[in-house]
Amino acid sequence: MREVIRRAGLAADKRLGQHFLLDPAILRRIALAAGPLEGATVLEVGPGPGGLTRALLAAGAARVVAVERDPRCIAALAELVAAAAGRLELVEGDALAFPIEGLAPPGALVIVGNLPYNIGTELLIGWLRRADAIARMVLLFQREVALRLAAAPGGPDYGRLSVSAQLVCRVERLFDLEPGAFVPPPEVRSTLVRLVPRPDRPPPELLARVERLTAAAFGRRRKMLRRSLTPLWPDPEPVLRSLGVPPTARAEELAPETFRRLAERLPASADQPPVAPGPARNCWTNSERNG
Question: In this structure, are 284 and 149 located in the same domain?
């Protein structure tokens, strides 16, 4: 892999959030965590020089669709595309705009990736909204994001991302990787996370309501729910009491399922387009802690 990088002149581009993972043992471990892959279609985001791509093919994936934005990596992967004999499809483009529907039968797509830190959360939010297409996701995030994904109510890491991820998927933190596992080393540790869509997940229209509800609740995190939810209900106290939630409670005290039950009771007047990824991305990260 280092020879591939040298020949292609693949110095990691910070603007693209690139940190290459080259250790064959770690790459095999990630591919195994995504398995079984025999007969599966796998979407890989950001293959870079192709280390994880090779591991996925070696693990038996029937088809790997690799989406890569960096044209240097596209050129570096040409040999691998030829060697894979039709099992590897390379797409040059932006993963944020890449449609996943139709890649595999509904509920059968496997998504694997060493995600760029600068868009990892944004990618995941989009996939949670399209979970009907997905069998499972095995993704590398910076550890801070992984902690939020798996956080329990009441802790400092619990927020909007925790609620949406846990309502849609079973979330499992698998293992951490130190910065030295990557080239170049990032400034933070990384964590591999497995997310498996739940059969009882909320449908997309209800998930959109959950997103609006948690935006209001965690956007004013230090306030009691009877105050933070007033943009959605003129008087939220009766609905809170009907669910056994004290109006003086704060957002971080409510379990994901309670947010779902609240979202089911949102008045029709609260309906509006869901919060879009992109410019609103920080609403899922820093502002939910500081708001």
Answer: no
